[in-house]
Design goal:
Layout (H helix, E strand, L loop, with lengths): L2 H23 L7 H15 L9 H18 L3 H6 L1 H26 L4 H11 L5 H10 L3 H31 L10 H33 L5 H22 L4 H12 L11 H27 L3 H6 L1 H27 L8 H9 L5 H8 L3 H4 L4 H27 L12
Helix pairs in contact: 1-2, 1-12, 2-12, 2-18, 3-10, 3-11, 3-12, 3-16, 5-6, 5-8, 5-14, 6-8, 6-16, 7-18, 8-9, 8-11, 9-10, 9-11, 10-11, 10-12, 14-15, 14-18, 15-18, 16-18
């Protein structure tokens, strides 16, 4: 059997497994489909070895991630996103770097890593993925503002985290496995400048491309032409900005999707061809995430988790604690200067809804051997990804019930 045939067979088999899971959970609104997929993925290599596929950073970054990000940004309620932009900006531009620093310092004591490795691990593991938790939000009719805040933060912090990771990795290589230069004012200023240029430049270029594409598709009534424009924008903005301009491809795709999807009255005036294209992207994103979640569950042998279960458990707990340390103070501080504060119960869900899956997996797979040698970083990241999406995802309905946020979309958000 050729490699291509084997790959197609495995993908088809994974989709069959996903179909069975979907049929089993379709009438259970309180069960997260993505969480069950990852859990099933844990036993796939044992029960069906032929369905195992090797995940690589390039496959995730170049093939899968642009589709997920572009679909997520084009479906956002842009008006609601603008309303929550200050908070999202604070959580991303202040909260994420602070969280990386806290987890990096804590990692030296908890995991026994050097500071440089601990900071790299922190930058790898902290990006969040809202796909699974947002599907539960839709099922339980959670208020749109909370969903938009979590999704907006996730889309931006994915891109910023990748820029921070790349800068830390470059410093690690240049300084001979040391990042002590970042502790100096000059080093910190240079690092911050690099993050701003790479991230901001990617976002600006992507937004420009997306705006031009938006103006173009408004003049088209050909569904296939609009679909082709969207594909070129989604993948082209990522590829050109990331690999030719050496800026942030993820943030370029975020900017392109936001600008291209910023329709009047937040999508209310989309044409019929545009709505058809949106459905195509929804389907593509669903298929991509379906395959990806199964592969995440099946990527690391269970024996590796058993061998390093203490490190995995410590990392999973520490990641939630660090997210809480950053979310509560920053949201509370932002509430002091806004006319529409975020209630404390919503902050609880923002902490619990931080699932760390797709981008962390891609980043850890891209780490060079000099970083991973002798360290179970891959097992730790995959373990945290699986625990977050399975445990936090399956318990999210309970968390929403306890905070009184289930079925909150139909009325005022609880204070």
């Amino acid at each position: 059997m050729s490699g291509l045939v084997a790959t197609l067979t495995a993908v088809l088999g994974i989709l069959v497994v996903a179909l069975v899971v979907r049929l089993l959970v379709r009438n259970h609104d309180r069960v997260a489909y993505a969480s069950v997929l990852v859990a099933v993925g844990l036993v796939v290599p044992t029960l069906a070895p032929a369905l195992r596929l090797d995940l690589t950073a390039d496959v995730i970054f170049l093939l899968l991630l642009p589709a997920i990000i572009f679909h997520g940004t084009t479906t956002l309620n842009v008006r609601e996103l603008r309303h929550n932009a200050p908070l999202i900006g604070v959580l991303t531009l202040v909260g994420l770097p602070v969280a990386v620093g806290i987890l990096g310092v804590a990692g030296t004591a908890v995991f026994g890593f050097d500071l440089s490795i601990a900071l790299l691990f922190a930058a790898v593991i902290l990006p969040t993925d809202p796909a699974a938790v947002l599907s539960i939000f839709n099922q339980l009719d959670v208020a749109e503002r909370l969903a938009i805040t979590i999704e907006g933060e996730s889309l931006l912090n994915d891109g910023v985290a990748i820029v921070i990771f790349s800068s830390l990795l470059a410093s690690y290589r240049a300084a001979g496995e040391s990042v002590t230069s970042l502790a100096t004012p000059a080093g910190l200023a240079s690092f911050t400048g690099d993050v701003a240029v790479v991230g901001g430049g990617g976002l600006l270029i992507g937004a420009t491309v997306g705006y031009l594409a938006h103006r173009l598709v408004r003049r088209l009534d050909d569904t296939m032409a609009i679909l082709l424009v969207s594909v070129v924008v989604a993948y082209g903005s990522f590829l050109v900005v990331e690999h030719y301009l050496h800026l942030s491809g993820v943030l370029a795709t975020v900017g392109a999707g936001l600008a291209m999807g910023a329709h009047e009255e937040t999508h209310a005036h989309m044409s019929d061809p545009e709505e058809t294209v949106q459905e195509v992207w929804s389907t593509l994103s669903f298929l991509v995430t379906t395959v990806l979640y199964v592969l995440i569950g099946s990527a690391v042998p269970p024996t590796a988790f058993i061998e390093h279960w203490q490190l995995v458990a410590l990392a999973a707990v520490l990641v939630v604690v660090v997210r809480a340390i950053t979310i509560y103070p920053l949201v509370s501080a932002t509430n002091l200067v806004t006319a529409d504060p975020i209630p404390r119960r919503c902050q609880h869900i923002m902490v619990w809804g931080g699932l760390h899956t797709v981008v962390p997996v891609a980043l850890v797979l891209s780490l060079p051997a000099s970083v991973t040698a002798g360290r179970p970083l891959e097992t730790m990241v995959f373990g945290v990804a699986i625990l977050s999406i399975v445990v936090q995802g399956l318990l999210m309905p309970t968390a929403l019930d306890l905070t009184g946020l289930a079925n909150s979309a139909g009325g005022e958000e609880p204070a």
